[in-house]
Structures are given as structure tokens and as C-alpha cells.
Amino acid sequence: MSAVEAKLAELGLTLPEVVPPLAAYQPAVRSGVYVYTSGQLPMVNGKLEVTGKVGHEVTPEEAKDLARICALNALAAVKSVAGDLDRIARVVKVVGFVASAPDFTGQPGVVNGASELLGEVLGDKGVHARSAVGVAVLPLDAPVEVEVQVELEERQAGPGQALNGA
């Protein structure tokens, strides 16, 4: 078990399986030392348990918890292409989309759910730049969606090994 997954367990969390794509995209793509996740919905066991607009059907507190689930799903997507979450050098950027009632302006507080989880799990490596955007609707009527960009530590080649960053 990686140190990151051990920290998740210490927090009472388990890294989920990668959420299968809902359309024509990959959950995460690696380019050099960076991993970019697609937008992650708060899917649990293949289901979206809460739907609706934040500030109307969904409370900001519920949405913040859903953003944590999105961040967990993003970590699973990162692991799927990086192989090991301990390779994360830092989280570079988080973008959170919040399906908002017309008068709801608390998007930053909702996306804090994702940011705080990344900080709890990764410590200083989880500190990142961020955007929190209110939108009219998200896929499947999800209340929140989060995408993450991480930088991986470059691996050093050992004797007789090629250095390919993998």
C-alpha cells in the first residue's frame, strides 16, 4: 500500500475504482510529468446518489461532501495512469464546477471539499491553484464536478534501466 493510500485509510477513506467514462474520453491522461483528469462526478459504486442544484435541492454542506468524493475519484484516475499515488510531486491545479441555483454564490466553499481533501491526504503536495465556477447544469444533473492536474516526480533510472519517466 502506498503512503498516500495509507493516509486515506487513516482518514477512514478508500480509493475507489476508476469511474468509467460516460462518453468519448479517458478518465485521465498523462503528458510528460503531468496527469490531467477529466471532470470527475461524485459517483459512488457507479451511481450518482445526489442530484440537483446547489442552493436549491442540494445544501452547500452536502455539495462540499460531494466535492470530496470527486477528489477521491480524481485520485483514482491519477493512479490509473501514474501507477502509484506516491509519485505525485504536487497538485498543480483544481477546477471545480458547481451546478448552482441562480442566487447561489458559495461555489468556493463547495470546492473547498476537494481542496481540503487533497491537503489532508497529500500535505504540502496538495496545495494548488484553483478555480470554482458556477454553472447552470452538469452531466447527469450532478451538483458538482472536479478536475485535477498533478505533477509527477520524475523517476531516476537505475543501473541498466532506461529513463522513460514511466
TrEMBL record:
Domain of life: Bacteria
Pfam families according to UniProt: YjgF_endoribonc
Every Endoribonuclease L-PSP/chorismate mutase-like domain range: 5-147
InterPro entries named in the record: Endoribo_LPSP/chorism_mut-like (IPR013813), RutC-like_sf (IPR035959)
Bilayer-crossing regions: none
PANTHER family referenced in this protein's UniProt entry, alphabetically: ENDORIBONUCLEASE L-PSP_CHORISMATE MUTASE-LIKE DOMAIN-CONTAINING PROTEIN, ENDORIBONUCLEASE-RELATED
UniProt-recorded name of the protein: RidA family protein
Source organism: Streptomyces thermoalcalitolerans
Taxonomic placement: Bacteria, Bacillati, Actinomycetota, Actinomycetes, Kitasatosporales
